[in-house]
Amino acid sequence: MNKVRVRFAPSPTGIPHIGNTRTALFNFLFAKHNNGKLILRIEDTDKARFVKEAESTILEILEWLDISWDEKFTQSERLEIYKEHAQILKQKKLVYEDEGALRFKMPKDGETSWDDAVGNKKITFKNETQEDFIIIKSDGFPTYNFANVVDDYLMNITHVIRGEEFISSTPKHVQLYKSFGWSSPVFAHLPVILGPDKSKLSKRHGAKSALDFKSEGYLKEALLNFIVLLGWNPGNDKEQMSMDEMIKLFDLKDINTANPIFDIQKLDWLNGVWIRSILDLKKRLADFYKDEKDILTILNSDKADIFIQSAASRMKTLADFQSLISQDSDKKKSKEDKEISVKLLKYLNNKLVQDWQDDKLLSALKEFSKQEDVSFKKIYFLMTGKVAGIGILELNKIYGRDFFIKNLSDE
Ligand code: GLU
Q1: Is residue 42 classed as helix, strand or coil in its secondary structure?
Q2: Distance between the two ends of the chain, CA-based, in angstroms?
Q3: 130-147 mean pLDDT
Q4: pTM summary value
Q5: Distance, CA 10 to ligand 1 centroid (Å)?
Q6: Contact 48/28 with Cβ under 8 angstroms?
Q7: pLDDT digits (tens, 9 = 90+) for 239-249
Q8: Which end of the chain is more exposed for a tag (fewer CB within 10 A), N or C?
Q9: CA distances to 145, 219, 328 from 112, in Å
Q10: Is there a contact between 189 and 163 (Cβ–Cβ < 8 Å)?
Q11: Rounded distance, CA 137 to CA 199, Å?
C-alpha cells in the first residue's frame, strides 16, 4: 500500500462542533497508526459563508487536543491550480459555461459506485438521479466538490475519512476522478452522531465545540476518549484509553455503521475517571482557575494536596472544585437545625475541649449521632454548611476547629 496520507478539511464557516472534531481525530489516529501523514486543509472557497474567527478556533481545538498535522494548505491560495484543472476538463469537453459558471457534465446512464470502508459495503447511485454541477463559480472560485477532488489528488490522499453527510456528494467526486483519469482514494464515511432523542445532534442537544467543553472543566484526555467511542471501539470492552492506546488500536474496520448517541453522562463519567488518573491535576486546576485568585492561593498552599485528593473523588469536572472547597453554605438552617447545632457545639466543646484531633472528633460525632438520633448527613451539613463534599477529617486538616465552630454558631 502507498504511504497513508489523510486529510482533515474543515470549512471555516462556523465554530466546529464535536462531529467535526471526531473527523479530525479519526483521521489523526488512522495516520499515526499507519505511520502516515495528516494534512490539514482549510476549505475556504465559499466566500458567502466565510467566518473570520472560524479558522483560529479550529486550530485552537486541534492544538488543545494534541491533534497535530504534518502539512497545511489553504484553498483560497490555490485558485490558479483549480482554474488550470478546470481548463483540462474544458479541453476534454466535459464542462460547459452556464451564466459565467463552469458546469461539469455528469453521465446520464448507468451507475456510480464505490466500496466504502465503513461497514465494507458498496454504495451505488443511479446516474439518472444526478445532475450536472458547478465546478467553478462565476466569481472564479471553485466549488467544494471540485477543489476537494483536485486537492485530494494533488496531495496524494489515500483515504478520505469524513462524515456520512458527504455520501451524497461522493458520486460527483467519483465522476470527477474518472474524468481526469485518476483513481479514487478509499472512502470511509463516518456515521452521523445523534442526540439522546435519536435525531441529528444539534445545538438543541448541546452540540458544542470542544472549547466549550474545555471551559466547562472537561479534560482533553476525557473528551478525546469520549469522542473516539462515538462510532468506534477497539473490539473489546475497553473504555478508558489514552491517545497512545487509541493510536495503537485504531482501525477503520472497527468503525460502526450504527449511529452513535451522544451521551453526556458517559462524558461526565469518563471525565471523573480521567480526573482521578492524571498525575498533574494540580496544574490542570491552576490552569483552569487562572483568573480566580482565592483558588490559586489554596492551590499554592501547603494544604493543596489534601484539598485536591479529597476533592478529586467527588469531581465530575474541574469546575466542581470551586464549590467543593468553597466555605459558603449551600442552604439555610431550619429552626431545628439551629437547635441541634447549639447542642452539638456544646457537646464538642465539652468532649474535646481544645483538642479536635481527627480520631477524637470522629468518635465524638458518631457518639452524638447515636445519642441524639441525628443522621451523619445532617451533622455534616451543620458542621460544614454543605450538603455534600470534602470529608470532615480532611476539612479538619485544612481549616481546623474554627471552621466548624463558625458553621455551628452560624445563625
Ligand atoms: N470542507 C468539507 C467540510 O466542511 C470537507 C468534507 C470532506 O472531508 O470532503 O467538512
Answers
A1: strand
A2: 75
A3: 97
A4: 0.93
A5: 5
A6: no
A7: 999 999 999 99
A8: C
A9: 16, 44, 66
A10: yes
A11: 34
